[in-house]
Amino acid sequence: MLYFVYFCLYFLVFFFGCCVGSFLNVLIYRIPKRIPFWKGRSYCPACDAVIKPYDLIPLFSYFFLRGKCRNCNHKISNRYPLVESLTGLIALFIFREYDLSIEFILCFIFSALLITIALIDIDTLTISNELVISLLIPTAVSLVIHPDWLSRAIGFFAVSLPMLILTLIIPESFGGGDIKLIAICGLMLGYQNILLAGFIALLLGGAYGVILLIKSKDNRKKHFAFGPFLCVGILTAMLYGEWIINQYLQLFHLN
Ligand SMILES: [Zn+2]
């Protein structure tokens, strides 16, 4: 019986995450086009038909409609269910760490903003200033609950300052948005976790950059979105940073 209750609870958290993911899809589509996200109902980008409420159920509607618009049969991008299920999964991971608590809410809002930032960066190669500033809201509340000022103040500069210096030496190595993003996230995560986040991002972004160079020898793509790698690093460090750092220290018998 207990297992069943847990199953239902986990399913509810996952579904809640999917619903938020569905809203994030709207933000990801509308923010770069400067369409107010609160205005008007969701519509099919191909035929402009307003999507009926029963076709807006996250994940289920996509599979029920077999990925096509009910009105014009236009293929719906599989990104929509992907973002929905990703947000659902992240909600589950956060729930496992924090249960239903204020930390869960803060972490989830923070993660949802990071998902939106990452996807918009993939689409447009820009990190939305408004969204980075919005990260300050969960950060400020978290600061009131856990006022570890010193760690957070150091965190603000720990990765952003080296990135800024590198960008001054080698122009365009990082975008201004990347630097602002990691600075504000340092304020949320504290210096240890933000260093880990920066390390993970460099590792993944570096590997991706190398693959990109090998794959396109003649037509060298100079830029790629680094924001998504930062977001993956930040999310991983936020949820499992303490565990990863402990494992690492144990490896060298440092704790
Ligand atoms: Zn349509």
Share of helical residues: 55-70%
Tally of alpha and pi helices: 11
Can you tell me the residue ranges where pLDDT is under 50 for at least 5 consecutive residues?
none
> Into how many domains do the coordinates divide?
2
* Fraction in beta strands: under 5%
Global morphology: globular
Taking the alpha carbons of the first and last residues, their distance comes to: 41 Å
How many β-strand stretches? 0
Bound compounds: zinc ion
Biggest beta-sheet profile: none
* Structural class estimated from helices and strands: mainly alpha
Oligomer: single chain
Mean pLDDT: 92
> SSE string, helix = H, strand = E?
HHHHHHHHHHH
Radius of gyration computed on alpha carbons: 20 Å
Describe the structure.
This protein is globular. With 255 residues, it is an all-alpha fold. The model has no long low-confidence stretch (mean pLDDT 92). It is built from eleven helices and no strands. Bound molecules: zinc ion. The site of zinc ion has 8 residues, from loops.
